[in-house]
Amino acid sequence: LNDWLFYGACDPSLGKAGKSRDTSALVIGGYNRATGVMDVVEALIKKRLPEKIISDIIELQRQYRCLLLGIERVQFQEFLKTELVKRGALAGVPIPARGIKPSADKLMRIESLQPYMANGQIRLHASQSTLIEQFRHFPMADHDDGPDALHMLWMAAQSGVAAANVQAFDLPEPSFAQF
Q1: Strands 97-100 and 4-11: what pairing?
Q2: Taking CA 154 as the corner, what is the angle to CA 24 and CA 149, rounded to the nearest 5 degrees?
Q3: What are the backbone angles phi and psi of residue 25, rounded to the nearest 5°?
Q4: How far apart are CA 177 and CA 131, in angstroms?
Q5: Half-sphere exposure of residue 163, counting CA atoms within 13 Å on the CB side?
Q6: Of the chain's two ends, which shows fewer C-beta atoms within 10 Å, N or C?
């Protein structure tokens, strides 16, 4: 556990009524920089209203203290990110949210995870049955929010690791002029 750096991702939903409404997916991964392996420690995929998405993220952040939380940034989701950061601060739980605007086609994004999963660099737990089922039936599954969130999680971990590996600039000590 001490070797993990935690990252999170959220593929939110509007929580519209009906069987066809999207699920929201909240995933947390523990990334081990020494091995390059990310273990998915939470995969919470269900239909929930935006209020519940926000409260669930705050609780996950309280527990895992993610270094970065990627949240899909399309339509209302920018407002959701802003509200999440505000409510997290009010609760005394800073949320390191970064809006992620999907750039590539969803099919390509999710398929890009395959080699990392096949090589054991992204590991799921057998208890994460909803996420596993969404992958198993992709791209024909009713919902693909879990795999989409996992892609954001992997990207967050990769960008966070890259930032953590940047060496500090060797700058001289500042000198302050006397006024």
Answers
A1: unpaired
A2: 10
A3: -125, 125
A4: 59
A5: 9
A6: C
* CA-based nearest residue to 64, from 9, 25, 26, 8: 8
pLDDT class of 42 with cuts at 50, 70, 90: very high
pTM here is 0.83
Per-residue model confidence as pLDDT tens digits over 160-172: 755 544 434 444 4
Measured CA to CA, the distance from residue 11 to residue 146 in angstroms comes to 8
Largest CA distance in the chain: 70
Taking only the tens place, the pLDDT of each residue in 12-40 is 876 555 555 678 999 999 999 899 999 99
33 close to 1: Cβ distance less than 8 angstroms = no
